[in-house]
Specification:
Bound molecules: calcium ion
Distance between the termini: 33 Å
Number of helices: 5
Structural class: mainly beta
Shape: elongated
Helix content: under 10%
CATH architecture of the largest domain: Sandwich
Length: 448
Amino acid sequence: MKSLSYLSIVFIFTFSACIPEEVAVPELICNQPDYEINRTISEVIKNANSVVKQYTYDDVIEAYVISTDEYGNFFKTLHLQTLATATAPSIGFSVPADASNLYVDFRLGNKVYLKLKNQYTDIYYGGLRIGGIYANAYNESSVGRLSQNDYKNVLHPSCVTFTDDQLVKKMTIPELLKDSNLNTLVELNDVQFATAAIGRHYFEESNNVGGGTNWYLIDKNGNQVYLRTSSYARFASNLVPTTKVKIRAVLTKFGLDYQLAVRSEADIEPTTARGMPFFTEDFQTVTDKSNLSLPGWSNLVQAGSLFWKGAMYNGNGCAEFLISGTKVNSNIAWLISPKIDMDVYKNEVLTFRSAQHHLDVDSPLNTLEVYISKNFDGLDVSKATWVKASFNVPQQTTPWYQFIGSGGVDLSGYTGKINIAFKYIGSGKNTALDGAFQLDDVQIYGDK
Ligand SMILES: [Ca+2]
């Protein structure tokens, strides 16, 4: 993918609406002034925090434009980043500005100077914002849009433009999900839209979360990240690709959710045929806070009296083991899948996602374990032979409620019918061992 050159942008903007034929474009001369840089973005970030603050020094920084409002998926916000060096990854930030068609002056890849004096900074969901000031109805202040009169005094385009290829960072989903990547241009390869998105549009009114739709992109290890598309995106009503894709996007965050936003549909490049799970459970039919009861699944207590429950968080259903009520020494409960036939596909790989909250220590006495059995009778866990599988267990340092991919659990050695068990271990009495675990998106992929 190539960013548009200055010439072609001016050409499209000026002529394409009315004249379809090619028109000779006069050569354009760039004569933007250069400013002396005396501050780095990392220095600005170091001095910013969640409380909005006015910037009092006469400082100038430089950064490169990585977002565009040309295709409607970005609106009144510019995302900019530094150029990565051999020792320092790129650092990004956002600048809200009360202006439409920002792309005309601030083209993709364009180096922009920012004059910081008297502007405001804050850290919002982990990302630096530079802009004006905004006070809400409760008189709480935060960074707001630069005014229409102001933004051109703060943001100064230069004559230097880099390509996408010079600015983008290729990474995997686990590498991606960090605040330090916010507002930078990233590329994910070998990912696909989650099953729930197939046959659906980028934006759907039935899945409208604050003016946009979030669909999960998933990798072969069960890692997921949202792709967010605004209802105003020009491609909002197109269907999402059914293949695997290579995707370039800007990483943003809302609350706990990392969200990728593409500049245009061209950022989503179809690659190879998608992997199709032959077994999936997304827990969307669970009832919040009720003992889990799904067709074919077993929910069995080995110690204590608590079962796995259904949980709903912001519309996402998952399985959860949460210690509440009776405070017994040991809580152990097994959530066991239906029988899965391993003779239909080859090269089977299990993936799922799990999260923790209120976990105080990384201990075998408060954890989630996964087992596979070929001889579970559906009733008695102790009579079956269980083989433990290793996966990425959420750690105490994993942010609460943040689902992480399990990694691929190789099931290719199994034949016949198997059950997969998710075993919770914890203590209601020892409050150091009463952390909760959540489970979602159990999938098994295989080749025919
Ligand atoms: Ca779910």
